[in-house]
Amino acid sequence: MSGRGIRGSSDRSTLVLTSLAEGPKHGYGLIADITAFSGVRLGAGSLYGCLSHLEADGLVEALPPEDRRRPYQITRSGLNELRARLIQSARIAEIGLSRVGAASA
Question: Given a cut of 90, is residue 79 above it in pLDDT?
Answer without folding.
Answer: yes
